[in-house]
Amino acid sequence: GQVLKMNSGATAPEWAADSGGMVLLSQGTGAGASSLTIDNVFTSTYKHYKFVYSWAEDDWVKFRWVKSDGSEASTSEYAWAGYNVNVKWSDNTVSDGNYRNKEVDYAPLTYWDGQNNTPSGGEVFFMDPCNASTDGTFVGTFYCDDGTKNYWHSHGSNCRVENAFRGIHIWGQGGDNMTSSNFFWSMYGFSRT
Question: How far apart are CA 33 and CA 184, in angstroms?
Fold first, then answer.
C-alpha cells in the first residue's frame, strides 16, 4: 500500500510505499463454543502483536499460549501482576489495589466478570512470541462492568516456557460460550522494520 508522508525537505506531502507499522492480520467472532483458539497467527514476519477483543458475557477470560508444535503451554509456569481501579455503582465509591498470582496453568485477560448486556474487553500487547529463546510475555489493559462495579485494570504476564509460540487459546472461567453475537476480536502485527 501507499502512505502519505512529508518529503525530505519537509516542504510538501508526498505518497510513498508503506514501510511498516500496524497491520490487521485477522479478525473474527466466537464460534459458539466455550473456548477459542487463534492458531498460526504469530510468524517471523512480525515481531510484536496486538490483540483487541470484547465479550458481552457474565464471565472473565483465561489465556494460554499455543506452542510451535500446536500443543498448549499448560504447565504451572504462568505468573502475572497487575493493578485495578474500580467504581461502585451504588454510591460512587472508588477503590484500587494490586492482584497477582504465580505458578498457575493460565493467565487472565479480563480478571472480573462482565455482563450479558455490557461488553468487557481489552487490548493485549504480545512481545516477540516467535522468539524461542524467550518466555511468553504480554501486557494488557482491560475493562469490565460486573453490574455492581466498573473495573479498569492493567497487568503483565509471563509464561516461563521458552518456546516459539504460534497462537493463543482463550476461554471463560465459568464456561460460557463465545458466540458470533457476543465475542469479537482482531489481531494486528507490527513490522520488524
Answer: 13
CA–CA dist 110, 31 (Å, integer): 19
Mean of the pLDDT values across residues 111-125? 90
The b/e string for 147-165 (b: 16+ C-beta within 10 A; e otherwise) is: eebbbebebebbbeeebbb
What is the predicted pLDDT for the residue at 78?
Answer: 96
pLDDT for 193 equals 59
Question: 69-101: b or e for each residue (b if 16 or more CB lie within 10 Å)?
Answer: eeeebeeebbbbebebebeeeeeeeeeeeeeee
What is the model's pLDDT at position 15?
Answer: 82
DSSP 88-149: ETTT--EEEEEEEEEEES-EESS-S--BTTB-EEEEEEEE-TT-TTS-EEEEEEEEEE-SSE
For residue 81, the Cα-to-chain-centroid distance in whole angstroms is 15
Verdict on whether the full-model pTM lies above 0.90? no
Placement of cell 514476519 in the chain: 45
